[in-house]
Write a structure and sequence with these properties.
253 residues; alpha/beta; eight-stranded parallel barrel; 8 helices; isomerase activity; Sugar phosphate isomerase/epimerase
Length: 253
Amino acid sequence: MIRPGLCSVTLRRLDADEVARRAEKAGLQVIEWGADVHVRPGDDWAAERAFEAMARHGLTCDSYGSYFRATPVEAGKFGEIAATAVRLGASRIRVWAGKAGSADVDPDEREQVVAGLREAADVANEHGLEVALEFHGGTLTDTAESTVQLLEEVGRDNLGTYWQPPQDLPDEQALAGLELVLDQVRAVHVFSWWPSNERHPLTFRAELWTRVFALLTKAGRPLDALLEFVPDNDPDLLPGEADSLRKLIEAGA
């Protein structure tokens, strides 16, 4: 029910074929291609190259990791993002909920983000795609409560959310937040940071991730667990981290 995969931003310095080759060698199944380096919106050549690399290495694209933030200046630009996602064979586009945290945003700015997300979800739907929100500080999805509120305000069935452990939040609070958004979670970004953004091997937070995967398994629907970041950005650590990911998924089953 939970497919192990990789965010291409984990291996930013490598080209698309090498990313796919290493993902296959590590026993991963799916890739989220990042729009910052590997496949920029509208770059058909890069999208085709990434698609061909996946075909060579037996992988599929579960998500296109865009940096669309649903701001007014981006109005009308989501079509190009959706078209690129289709070229990748993606089923989902990752987006961001604005540029301000839920406690700092003013009502007008929040409504603008809501409108931008509605437009993005509608365009995605026309392309047969889902949209999922990056669960991240400094945006309207900086807490589980705000994420639930935002999803209700946008009101689109093809809009869900990603999840990842919020920085510096203890395990119990992080898990409580996951339970709150569980019905809307489409995938999780997997890494072990503690404290703040200090990077560790995945097993450093094995107890947290085992409980996360137990909750995701309990949800009873297919989901993706995407490795995002490894210590020191070292590509050679990917096989060990992928093995840890599979074992943690199994431990939570």
